[in-house]
Write a structure and sequence with these properties.
By secondary structure, this protein is of the alpha/beta class. Among the domains are: about 150 residues, Rossmann fold (3-Layer(aba) Sandwich), CATH 3.40.50.980; about 110 residues, 2-Layer Sandwich (GMP Synthetase, Chain A, domain 3). The protein is built from 17 helices and 27 strands. The strands form 7 sheets. Strands 2-1-11-10-12-13-14 form a 7-stranded mixed β-sheet, with helices on both faces. The radius of gyration is 23 Å and the shape is globular.
């Protein structure tokens, strides 16, 4: 059974409020040019003390587009974009789209081998990267790839109107084998003619994290992005011109769509701070007074742990949202009690171009009484979410199964992988690989990744349920649960935790906390305390790394029960 907006009066009402324009802009370039036309002098990008208006960003991105076309970049060629959260990223993205290119966002933390895979697999023609990365290792990586156009950016630039330095790193000498991004941007050239793209054209090739094999490129179309950008803007009910702070990385689909694209959709100001550092982010909140941000739960944990954090740091926010990683109910309660805002959950994947479900304004996500799982929201307008069994049949409401999504945000497939596309998106419906359920009011709950399920003596244990219990302990800052080999049970539950600053706890205490709240087969038999848990740059805790650590044998600081 599937719950739709029409099934519930309050969902139907929200559908009308959040639907947005019947005909959203065909591409984000069209949306950006409309903002340039209507509010040319409004600040588009704020970077520390630097500011760029919509008119200035338009002129600079025109220069980049003309340079790329002049260097031989053809419509449909791929351009890899490997930068931190800075204006350079936004200008290069817009310039590439104006030149008719497909953008391939690359994690700037990638090592040479990871970058080489992306450049080769996407057959990348052009690369935009930081000057330091070019000098350190990307020059050699690019030389062994299809790349024939290189532009470098010094992310020390654009921090202020008077070149005052904010970031603390050394500027690289100009490269003689790569063009400087800002130099070509400032030529004053108009965007090239005949490069317009349509909604059906691929805008991004977004490489998945590769948790279950070699990373593959999801083809996000311009229509996918404009739909979710407009939905994010209208659904948030924020006024046009609002300030959005970039907490999630822009190379990640959450930052790309929920922050950058939605800011353009609302002709707003996008505030950037290079990359996540909790103290710097808190300062930026006070400087820019943003109305909206979205980031992983781990980022909010880090912000809340800072001793200087006060309610004033969060007082400007109309909406504080989380995406990219599960949100423990205890974190929502702790954050609200300490700082005021309600942290709104959401759910999406790269393959559905960020969100497909979210907690609407004016609503609080319920917590499932049986499992303690926090709902991730309700499906967006024109979006159908189904819960399927192993044979692909819908299950009754309340029963667990694989989450499947159909809607305007779902990608048509993976880059040059027709068989994997057909398996993952049969007849246009995305099979997410996530296990969840829906209640009778249409709320969606995500239990866990299908592949992360632990089989302990034949009983299913979902790591999320155990993690949520650990987060309810006052000493726990981060938690991750994995299955480890067990000669008696087949698998047993092991937890890794990090502790809040100036709070002490021992593994035995944490095991007891779980034992009192979970069935005997669910509580962790072993808990190991670490200073920090390993994460991706988008803030997701790396269970696979912890699983490998657990399989290699017990380490110090743990307890077995």
């Amino acid at each position: 059974m599937t719950v739709t907006y029409e099934d519930k009066p309050w969902l139907k009402q929200l559908n009308e409020v959040q639907r947005g324009p019947v005909n959203p802009p065909e591409t984000m370039v069209h949306a950006f040019r409309e903002a340039v036309r209507t509010v040319p002098d409004r600040v588009a990008l704020a970077y520390f003390d630097g500011r760029l208006t919509y008119a200035e960003a338009d002129a600079l991105s025109d220069g980049i587009a003309t340079h790329l076309a002049g260097r031989g970049l053809e419509r449909g060629d791929r351009l890899a974009l490997m930068l931190q959260n800075s204006p350079h990223f936004v200008l290069a993205l817009l310039g590439a789209w104006k030149a008719g290119a497909v953008v391939v966002p690359v994690n700037p933390m990638y090592k040479a081998g990871e970058v080489a895979h992306v450049l080769a697999d996407a057959e990348v023609t052009a690369l935009v990267c930081a000057d330091r990365a070019w000098e350190k290792y990307l020059r050699e990586t690019a030389a062994a790839s299809p790349v024939r156009i290189a532009l470098t950016a010094c992310e020390l630039d654009l921090q202020s109107r008077d070149d005052k330095r904010v970031l603390d790193f050394e500027r690289s000498a100009p490269a003689d084998d790569a063009d400087d991004l800002l130099t070509v941007a400032r030529t004053g050239a108009s965007a090239p003619e005949g490069r317009e793209l349509s909604g059906g054209d691929t805008a991004l090739i977004s490489y998945t994290s590769g948790t279950s094999g070699t990373p593959k490129g999801a083809m996000n179309t311009h229509a996918n992005i404009t739909y979710n950008a407009e939905r994010q803007h209208t659904g948030s009910q924020l006024p046009d011109g609002s300030c959005i702070f970039v907490l999630a990385p822009l190379f990640h689909i959450t930052g790309m769509v929920c922050e950058l694209a939605s800011s353009i959709a609302g002709a707003g100001t996008l505030a950037l701070a290079y990359r996540f550092e909790a103290g710097v982010v808190l300062d930026a909140f006070l400087e820019h007074r943003p109305a909206f941000t979205v980031g992983p739960s781990t980022a909010y944990m880090a912000l809340a742990a800072r001793p200087e954090a006060t309610p004033d740091h969060f007082s400007s926010f109309e909406i504080l949202a989380s995406g990219g990683a599960p949100v423990p109910p205890a974190l929502v309660d702790k954050l609200g009690a300490a700082f005021g805002p309600y942290l709104r959950n959401g759910y999406g994947l790269t393959e559905c171009t960020a969100p497909c479900a979210s907690v609407p304004p004016g609503r609080r996500a319920p917590v499932d009484a049986a499992s303690g799982t926090l709902a991730v929201g309700v499906p967006g307008p024109d979006t159908v979410v189904r819960i399927l069994d192993d044979e692909g049949r819908p299950v009754p409401l309340g029963e667990q199964g694989e989450i499947a999504v159909r809607g305007p945000q779902v990608i048509p497939g993976y880059w040059r992988r027709p068989e994997e596309s057909a398996a993952a998106i049969p007849d246009g419906e995305l099979r997410t690989g996530d296990i969840g359920f829906m209640d009778t009011d249409g709320w969606l709950y995500v239990v866990d990744r299908k592949k992360d399920m632990i089989n302990a003596s034949g009983f299913k244990v979902w790591p999320r349920e155990v993690e949520d219990v650990l987060y309810s302990h006052p000493a726990v800052r981060e938690a991750a649960v994995v299955g480890v080999a067990d000669a008696y049970r087949g698998e047993s539950v092991k937890a890794y935790v990090s502790l809040r600053p100036d709070v002490q706890a021992v593994p035995e205490e944490l095991v007891g906390h779980c034992k009192d709240r979970l069935a005997a087969y669910k509580y962790p038999r072993e808990i190991e305390i670490l200073a920090d848990l390993p994460k991706t740059t988008s803030g997701k805790i790396l269970r696979r790394e912890l699983r490998s650590r657990g399989d290699s044998g017990n380490a110090s600081g743990g307890v077995s029960a």
